[in-house]
Each structure stands twice: as structure tokens, then as C-alpha cells.
Amino acid sequence: MKDFIKGAAPVLPCQDVDAAIDYYKNKLGFDKTWVHQGFYGGAYNGSAEFHFHKAQSEIHPIIVYCFVDKVDDVYEFVKSNGVEITNELTNQVYGLRDFTIKDLNGHFISFASQIEK
């Protein structure tokens, strides 16, 4: 069976769901946020949805790779918001231009666009 998935949402463990959503909203430009009883929540950016759950133990970082239209604009936006950039904006040998940030819970989020020819 193929082509049945209509979307996916990474579920990121965090220390504080409200703080995580606030970070993604104010630092990364996510919107349409929601929280359920303080232990689970979500935020949207374009067609992407990220979920957050309150960790019951140590957080092990997750890596999420996001495809965007204008990676240079995204880079300037997050940089101007003081987001920790762990890998600078670079043209990669695999045909994408990308960079990586580290969020307040230690998760790594990469943003990438096709290299324009």
C-alpha cells in the first residue's frame, strides 16, 4: 500500500510544554498552537505540525529535517531571533543548502532548500 500518509508530526519530548511551544512560536515563527492539560501540545508552521510532550525522564535529542522554500530567509529570521545555530548555512554535496539549530530542549532542527542552479 502506498501514498496513504497525508502528513506526519514529530513528537518532541520537553521539560515544559508551554515553554517549548512559546519557543517555537516566538523564535521559529510557528503559530496555531495548542496545549492539552499541560503535558501535550502542538504548533504549526505552514503544513508542518510539531507535537511536544512532557518528558518523564531524561530527554534524548531528536533530529528533524525540514524542507523549506527559501532557506536563506529562514536562516536570517532564526538568527535574528537569537536561535542557537549549530551548523551554519552551507551548500551540501547532496544538492541541498541547509543549516541546523538546537532548540531549548536540545533537539536539532535542520532547514533545507534545493540549491538553485
Overview of the molecule:
The protein has 117 residues and is α/β, with parallel strands linked by helices. It has 2 helices and 8 strands, in the order E-H-E-E-E-E-H-E-E-E. It has a single domain, classed as 2,3-Dihydroxybiphenyl 1,2-Dioxygenase, domain 1 (Roll). The strands form 2 sheets. A 4-stranded mixed beta sheet has the order 1-4-3-2, with helices on one face. The chain has a 4-stranded mixed beta sheet with strand order 5-8-7-6, covered by helices on one side. The longest helix is centred in the N-terminal third of the chain and has 10 residues, at 17-26. The radius of gyration is 15 Å and the shape is globular. The model has no long low-confidence stretch (mean pLDDT 96).
